[in-house]
Amino acid sequence: MHIIVGITGGIAAYKTPELVRLLVKAGHEVRCAVTEHALQFTTRATLETVSSNPLYSDLFAGNDHGTEHISLKDWADWMIVAPATANCIGKMANGIADDALSTLLLAMPTQRVLLAPAMNSQMWNHPSVQHNLEVLHQWGVHTVGPESGVLACGTDGIGRMAEPVAIADKIRDLAASSTTITPQRRLANQRWLVTAGPTYERIDSVRFIGNYSSGKMGYALAEALAKAGAEVELVSGPTALGDIDSPNVNITRIESAREMYAAATRLFPSCHGAILSAAVADYRPESTADHKLKKQGDKGMTLHLVQNPDILATLGSMKGTGQTLVGFALETDNEMANATGKLQRKHLDYIVMNSLRDAGAGFGFDTNKVSIIAADGQITESPLLSKKEIAELIINTVTN
Ligand code: C5P
Questions:
Q1: Is the pTM of this model over 0.70?
Q2: 297-304 long-range contacts, CB within 8 A, separation 24+
Q3: Which of 71, 205, 321, 330 has the highest local Cβ count within 10 Å?
């Protein structure tokens, strides 16, 4: 699971790195979030080391225009706050979001939050704290502890944070009894292959045959799959796009159709499905000169081309039970008949058809308009949407 561990400013924060260690040991991926005061009791270096992830402490520190709380919320299955101070509980119960942690806490679905309160007994027994907790419980927020014992102030009483082991056990039990799968983790434990971008077919040491594919659609598909929890193998031709900022996406960069073929056929057997959105060159020069070819006078020049392997058709013939194969078709005429023919010939489960007749759709644009045709004949049509939205529509259609 993906777990955010929030830490607020109480002495029990010195025990939280141990909780993080236990969660990581149990196989979870953990991101820590802190209030400013939490760092009086534990340190950035400690939390980043035990979680192996950067700490979230500032709403505006990243380069995502202050929206990291939303991407973190999308990433997380659960959020624990340990220790949760009276202040943190009070802010959550009253919808106050005035720092990174409280903002993130308000973005999380309440049923996916576990608080481990810790404070002095008198504070714990204060009617405002008890009232706030009652409100939070009504909204579905879970709590663990506090326990009774010696408190930091030297007195004996209720208010000690539950031990890290008890908090880790509680989140394990909550996850096991949770009947709803978080939508963002729908494809957890699945592995998907995506091909993207153009291929370059070398003519000589400085020239190639290529095409105008930008790779944007394939990269958006890889991102959408990763967001849904899948592990993604992205095989990409040369594009101007940088790496995708997700630990779930592994990029293999290739240049030619034959290199893409080798990577895709190697990766496909271990995948639940594949979406081939790359614009693969159908032909390549028969031979490649290892030097720059010289001009050959006025006679012109003949380039002899041979056919490249069809990656999609090959994966179609390799496809095993339970594997889903999705192709793309960029058509200029007879769109529906050509796309359906391809779907059948290449043993696909779905084909995503782009028509070059649609303004704003196809190569280079940030938008697209598609028809998703299923093997059973069902057709899902999209309006003109961003490639990100199209990617989500495709993923939702082909993984349901
Ligand atoms: O037959 P056509 O090239 O139009 O089919 C397009 C689909 O086939 C796309 O999904 C593309 O990624 C895939 N393709 C492939 N290998 C090729 C040619 C196309 O995987 N050599």
A1: no
A2: 303/203
A3: 330
